[in-house]
């Protein structure tokens, strides 16, 4: 059989989070970085630390929800490969630990409108309701119940190509393409309710998952990366990019 990898993802988020209409302004308490500053990249790197307490609580001016805990109503994943094939749905998902981020790089090439970043994450916990049906290696897997997954550590990188667009006479940044790459360290996961409580089948599946967890993580990683990309674009970037470019990254001579 020809090897196939077809990750399909759907994220359903509340409309008042994902869709933000009208012009916005950067909150007064947010750090400003000027696009003609020779130390722009250092300013941006510093800003990632300065905005942490605001992101933890959420930024109502931009309709950005709190990032820890971060709530996702539903995530649907489907994957088909030679070794792993499944359809899975997660609902009422709560993610804690996203505020443990530490950017080691956050650069903005103004001429190319290209953003690049590198980040390390501390412990992240994911809880929610799950349903799954499929096959992992040679073992069928099916069930629904409670999911509790902890990612002990991870590293990530971000590349975003932006472009300038004009709306109602003002210039805005807009994402043209975003790619997020994730390298996951140790993962601990527990799924209650596999095989409708059949302990023998559940234990067999659990053993296979534990023994091959890193391989499984690598297989599903592309789908997870797409999910994180959609979350970033749907919430953070769409929110920030409602701010006119001249306000988001002004020139020094525009400073009030």
UniProtKB/TrEMBL annotation:
It comes from the Eukaryota. The keyword Cytoplasm does not apply. InterPro entries: Haemolymph_juvenile_hormone-bd (IPR010562), To_sf (IPR038606). GO terms for cellular component: extracellular space. Residues 1-22 form the signal peptide. Keywords: Biological rhythms, Signal. GO terms for biological process: circadian rhythm. Belongs to the TO family. This is Protein takeout-like Protein. The gene is AUGUSTUS-3.0.2_13659.
């Amino acid at each position: 059989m020809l090897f196939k990898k077809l990750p399909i993802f759907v994220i359903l988020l509340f409309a008042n989070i994902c869709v933000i209409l009208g012009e916005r302004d950067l909150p007064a308490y947010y750090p400003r970085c000027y696009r003609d500053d020779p130390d722009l990249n250092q300013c941006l790197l510093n800003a990632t630390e300065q905005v942490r307490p605001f992101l933890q609580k959420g930024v109502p001016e931009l309709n950005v929800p709190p990032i820890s805990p971060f709530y996702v109503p539903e995530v649907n994943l489907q994957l088909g490969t030679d070794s792993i094939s499944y359809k899975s749905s997660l609902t009422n998902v709560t993610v804690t630990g996203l505020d443990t981020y530490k950017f080691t790089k956050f650069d903005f090439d103004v001429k190319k409108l290209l953003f690049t970043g590198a980040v390390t994450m501390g412990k992240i916990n994911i809880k929610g309701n799950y349903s799954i049906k499929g096959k992992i290696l040679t073992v069928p897997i099916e069930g629904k119940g409670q999911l509790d997954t902890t990612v002990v550590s991870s590293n990530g990188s971000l590349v975003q190509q932006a472009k300038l667009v004009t709306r109602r006479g003002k210039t805005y940044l807009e994402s043209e393409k975003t790619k997020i790459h994730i390298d996951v360290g140790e993962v601990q996961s527990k799924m209650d309710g596999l095989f409708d409580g059949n302990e023998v089948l559940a234990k067999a599946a659990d053993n296979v998952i534990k023994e091959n967890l890193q391989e499984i993580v690598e297989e599903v990683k592309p789908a997870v990366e797409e999910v994180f990309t959609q979350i970033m674009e749907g919430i953070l970037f769409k929110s920030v990019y409602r701010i006119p470019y001249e306000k988001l990254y002004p020139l020094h001579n525009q400073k009030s």
